[in-house]
Design brief:
Number of helices: 10
Mean pLDDT: 97
Number of domains: 3
Helix content: 10-25%
CATH superfamily of the largest domain: FAD/NAD(P)-binding domain
Oligomer: single chain
Bound molecules: flavin-adenine dinucleotide
CATH architecture of the largest domain: 3-Layer(bba) Sandwich
CATH topology of the largest domain: FAD/NAD(P)-binding domain
């Protein structure tokens, strides 16, 4: 009972507010927003937004009127501390908000590069709208970018920068791109596609320093002794979950804010959702922290349902996408821990799916330009069904028959 205060107005925070009202929650809802924009979508920041010319309003989930009509109070500022005994949040502005339930949707922040010259203006990161704007504004005046990190965001940006006419080098410490997230088959496909587009990908190397002259970046030195010229460096070396607010309030944290399968922290009046939450997952048999739109929005919906009387454990199936140049990668399920990969379709024809198995169990499907396989995978998982590796590999096997 009482007001719901939501800290963080990203994908999770916005969805929690919207879903609470949709479910009929009638008390006060405050959405604390430390960014200067209305809540917006993050995925385009490294893709369409950088490529195009649309303004920030094209990214907004909803116009201001949506919040006004639903009495969702957008409060500009930062939550500075939580008084759990008094059920209050103190904002950096000095304002105090009382809560019946507190939702932490604080997301994650860029992991910063710890290298000489990493704080120069031409060294950029890509997490928030203002960073994407800043990059979009300077790209026309740049000729050569070194992208540090070949994860999703690094590669999405690299593809976009290349389309924009820049010379692009990508550095990756691992032996293949997106190594922690996808199978070798999918890594190899994307490596080949980015190289075809003229992007140079350097694997198994690290940046050791950023060189500059008069405050302007001139290049990046690598661990193998090479030096790459550059007038722009974009860093995509992962994120750190924003757990400090919870930790300082004495809530248990580890690689995220620890929550149970209902997304509740150790304090029954405080929950956490999205990128910041390390949640117990009976389905996957352990704790997970995921960084995806699906995870943040489904967490928020599950929590909003609980706060309006429909208490169920969080049990959604993960899915994800990444657009890189002309290719669309979609992942259904969690593919980590697989011991067998079966391909359906043909990488040479730029359309295939990697079905990932552990023994006979289908863990997930990584699809490249095969949206039908992806949707099939999500529906199959929703039904808790599987198909055999032999069926997956056989293009004449009708996937729909497995859903009947
Ligand atoms: P966020 O959306 O990060 O929101 C957290 C908000 O809380 C932020 O605005 C932050 O400033 C604010 N905050 C933190 N602390 C405080 C405080 N103390 N007080 C007030 N506010 C605070 N996912 C996909 O599934 N597909 C994609 O293609 C994809 N592309 C992406 C591209 C980019 C460039 C980025 C950055 C992410 C992408 N993601 C993608 C990931 C996805 O955007 C995140 O998983 C999602 O935004 C997580 O939502 P969240 O609400 O947990 O956190």
């Amino acid at each position: 009972d009482g007001p719901v205060i939501i800290v963080g107005a990203g994908h999770g925070g916005y969805q929690a507010a919207a879903s609470l009202r949709q479910a009929g929650f009638s008390e006060r809802i405050c959405l604390i927003n430390d960014e200067v924009h209305l809540p917006y979508q993050r995925p385009p920041l490294s893709k369409a937004y950088i490529k195009g010319s649309a303004g920030p309003e094209s990214l907004m989930f909803r116009p201001e009127k949506f919040y006004q009509d639903r009495k969702i109070e957008l409060i500009a500022g930062r939550a500075a501390s939580i008084d759990r005994a008094g059920r209050k949040v103190h904002l950096a502005s000095g304002e105090t908000l009382a809560y019946g339930h507190l939702i932490l949707a604080t997301g994650a922040r860029n992991r910063l590069l710890d290298l000489p010259n990493a704080n120069l203006p031409d060294v950029k990161y890509l997490r928030i709208l203002d960073e994407s704007e800043a990059l979009r504004a300077i790209i026309p005046s740049k000729t050569r970018v070194v992208v540090i990190g070949a994860g999703f965001i690094g590669l999405e940006f690299a593809a976009t920068a290349r389309i924009k006419g820049l010379e692009v080098d990508v550095l990756e410490l691992a032996p293949r791109v997106m190594a922690r997230a996808v199978t070798a088959e999918v890594s190899e496909y994307f490596q080949a596609r980015h190289r075809e587009a003229g992007i140079r990908i350097h694997l198994g190397v690290q940046a050791t320093s950023i060189e500059a002259e008069g405050g302007k970046v001139t290049g990046v030195s690598l661990s193998d002794g090479r030096h790459l010229p550059a007038d722009l460096v974009v860093v995509g070396v992962g994120v750190l979950p924003n757990i400090e607010l919870a930790a300082e309030a004495g809530l248990p944290v580890a690689a995220g804010i620890i929550v149970d399968e209902y997304l509740a922290t150790a304090d029954p009046n405080i929950s956490a959702v999205g990128d910041c939450a390390l949640f117990a997952s009976p389905r996957f048999g352990g704790s997970l922290r995921l960084e995806s739109v699906q995870n943040a929005t489904d967490h928020a919906r599950c929590l909003a349902a609980r706060l309006t009387g429909d208490r169920k454990p969080y049990d959604s199936h993960p899915w994800f996408w990444s657009d890189q140049g002309d290719d669309k990668l979609q992942i259904a399920g969690l593919t980590t821990g697989y011991d067998r990969v079966v391909l359906r379709g043909d990488p040479a024809r730029k359309a295939f799916s990697a079905f990932c198995y552990k023994g006979d169990r289908l863990l997930g499907i990584e699809s490249v330009n095969r949206a039908g396989d992806h949707m099939f995978g999500r529906r199959l998982q929703g039904m808790d069904r599987s198909i055999t590796p032999e069926q997956a590999a056989d293009e004449s096997f009708d996937l729909k028959s497995a859903l009947a």
